[in-house]
Amino acid sequence: MLSTTILGLETSCDETSVAIIRNGKLLSNIISSQIVHEQYGGVVPELASRAHQKLIVPIVNEALAKAEVQKKELTAIAVAVGPGLMGSLLVGVNFGKAFAYGLGIPFIAVNHMEAHIYSNFIEEPTPRFPFLNLTVSGGHTQLVLLNDEFQYKIIGETKDDAVGEAFDKVGKMLRLGYPGGPQVNKFAKQGNPNAIKFPRPYATDNDFNFSFSGIKTSVLYYLRDNKLRDTAIPEQLLADICASFQSSVVDVLMQKTIRAAKHFGVKDIAVAGGVSANSHLRSEMKKAADLNDLELFIPKFEYCTDNGAMIAEVGYRKSLRSMFSPINITAIANLEL
Ligand code: KG4
Ligand code: ZN
Predict the structure, then answer these.
(1) Which of 1, 153, 158, 166 has the lowest tally of Cβ within 10 angstroms?
(2) Which range is least confidently modeled, 43-52, 85-94, 128-137, 201-210?
(3) Ligand nearest to the CA of 273
(4) CATH of domain 126-298
(5) Where does 5-117+304-320 sit in CATH, by number?
C-alpha cells in the first residue's frame, strides 16, 4: 500500500504545534504554548507571530524526529489558514507553502474550526454521520450539523461572546490570570454551583443560538454590588462564584445541544474546542447524553485546545479525496466554516 504521510501545522493563535499522521495513525503531536502572553493578561498578536517564527523550524524537526519520519517521506503539508490572528496564521501558511513547494508535494488548506470538529476523529471510536458538533473555543461557539464528511451546516452560534472568551473575562475579573478558563474550572471544583443565581440566556428558546455576555456582566454586577472588585475575595466565595458562573454556562450549552440533537434526529453528539476540556461540561454532557440515549464524543485533553494533530487529521482525510489547495492561497483571519 502507498503511504499517505501528512504533516499538520497549527499557528492560528498562541500555540505552535506540529503533528504527523501516517495512514490515519498519529505518530507525533508536538505542542508549544507561548507563555510570553501571561504577563499581559491576554494574547499580544505581535509577540505571538514572533514566537511562532522562532519556534516553527525546531518544532517541525521535533515532530519529524519523534515520528521517525524523513522529510522526503511526507506526501502533503496541511496548514490552518484561518480563522485566527493574521500575523500568527501567516507564519504557518507561508512556512507550509514553502515547505510543500520545496518538497514538490501538495498543500492542504484547513479551516481551524473544521479541525476542532475532527479532533474527535484522531482516535477510535469516532462519531458516525450524521452527527451534531458543539464547538466551544476562545473565539467561537457553534452548533454544527454534519450530514457527511466536510458538509457543515451551522445551526446555531453565539450572538456575542464565545464561551471561552466569557470564561477568560470572568477569570480576569476574579484576578485569576490568563487564560482564565482552566483557573475558573479549578476553583469551581470546591464551590457550590447553586450559591449565586446567574442568568441562563436563551436556554429554553426554540432557536439554537447562544449569548454569553449577559452571564459575564452579571458576574461583574455581582462583584460590584458586593464591593468585591478591588479587594481580595474570600476563598470559599471565589469558588462559589466560579462554580455558579460555570454552571450557568454549561447548563445553556447542554440544554441547547440536547434539544438540537432531538430536533435534527441525530444519535451521535460531539463536543470540541478548548472549553471541551472543562470538567463540568464533560460530566454534564455525559449525564445528559446517557439520559437521552445519545452517544457522546469528547476529545482527550491534548486534542481539546489548539493542536497540530487535528490539522493533520483533516489533512489526511482531504488528501484521500485529493482536496488539495493552490499554492497562491493565503491566510484569512475571519475565515468561515
Ligand atoms: O480551542 P482553543 O485552544 O483556542 C481557540 O481556538 O480559541 O480554546 C481556548 C479557550 C480559552 O478561552 C480557554 O480559557 C478555554 O479554551 N479553556 C477552558 C478550559 N481549558 C481551556 N475553559 C473552561 N474550562 C477549561 N478547563
Ligand atoms: Zn482553537
Answers:
(1) 1
(2) 201-210
(3) 1
(4) 3.30.420.40
(5) 3.30.420.40
Please state the domain extents for the chain.
5-117+304-320, 126-298
Binding site membership of 185 for ligand 1 (Cβ less than 6 Å): yes
> 70-108 burial, b if ≥16 CB within 10 A, otherwise e?
eeeebbbbbbbbbbbbbbbbbbbbbbbbebbeebebbbb
Beta bridge partners of 76: 6
Cell of 291: 439520559
Cell of 45: 498578536
Look at the chain and count its residues: 337
pLDDT score for 1: 61
**35 band by pLDDT with thresholds 50, 70 and 90:** confident
- Which is it for the CA torsion 259, 262, 264, 267, positive or negative? positive
Q: Under a CB-based contact definition with an 8 Å cutoff, are residues 31 and 323 in contact?
A: no
Q: What is the pTM of this model?
A: 0.97
Question: Could you tell me the distance, in angstroms and rounded to a whole number, from the CA of residue 305 to the centre of ligand 1?
Answer: 6
Cis, peptide link before residue 106, omega less than 30° from 0: no
CB 47 within 8 A of CB 172: no
Helix (H) or strand (E) holding 64: helix 45-67
Is the distance from the beta carbon of residue 212 to the nearest atom of ligand 1 less than 6 Å?
no
48 CA → ligand 2 middle, Å: 15
